[in-house]
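ERR on first pass: missing label on line 2. Operator R.T. fixed the label and resubmitted. Corrected input:
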Amino acid sequence: MYVIVVGAGKVGYYLAKELLEAPEGHEVLIIEQDAAKCDRITLDLGDIALVGDGCEASTMATAGFGRADMVIAVTGDDEDNLVVCQVAKARFNVPRTVARINNPKNESIFKLLGIDTTVSATAAILAQIEQELPTHPLIPLLRLKGGGLEIVEVKVPQSASVVGQRIGQLLLPQQSLIALIVDAEGTPRVPSNDTMIRAEDQVVAVTRRESEDALRSVLTAPTPAGARGRDQ
Amino acid sequence: MKIVIMGCGRVGATLATMLDADGHDVTALDIRSEAFKRLPPGFKGRKHTGNGIDQDVLARIGLAQADAFVAVTQGDNRNVMATQMAKQLFGVRRTLCRIYDPIREEIYRELGLETISPTLVGARMLKDLLDQEPVAAESEV
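pass 2 clean. output:
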């Protein structure tokens, strides 16, 4: 494949390097306005850099956009990446265009304007954070005077291993006690040992501050693969 | 008419001043607040500091209610992107986009934008003046 990369920042540099090293043996050209950056690339990766403005049709013609299989615009500016890809499509019929975007909200307008693929580091990192943060956090409601006890609330997710178990079966941390359960319909129940935990239950519990994590884990951790019934 | 002008440089500020004098409801948008110093003291329109290619900013200034949008920042690509957002995301009826690069201007005109290239317009005017020179020289003699 003939791949043209516009923008020789860190993303562009490593992208070009990886493409060159790929076993498929791609032909790669990188366009960059800054001549010093181009010199460094020539030194490191060989004669694959072209000094010029990747948004200018004359540079694009010189670079051979007309025979490119893919154009990847990875400058730091969303508007420049948009124009590179739009002109590549409109003028040079490039079959596949990829644009880096910084503002994740630009994804929809780029799609609307015919860019085939958008890649957003911001969105990718956000997605990671959303995975890392517990989606069913334990919310401290009230600290009880003395003794380091507090009242907390946890929502039981669909995937939790406690779903379908009775409270008497649960291995709660020391000095922890389930005080109230509000089910998905909003009906409160005072739990006994025979009360069954259901998905989406809001569990209000008394616990020690240092046991918060253990309690959350009991109430929200998903069933480990192949470990079903281990506690029974 | 409610008109949003993105870019308050010489052209943007002059245009905003003219439209304001004509009684239009003008909003000037620029990424640098110092740019509004170019507007005259009696300017009755709104001044907004913000990035014109950020759709949150465009929403905040009420672009969806605007009758016209004019993009005259220094960057061709910013103008192109903002104009397309005004059209496609905010449904602004009339959009005008300044593009210095004549080739890019032609491409985006073909793609359906209402564009103007001051480079071409300016060069043509200068050429016309030069073409007239022999006549003017003759009349002076």
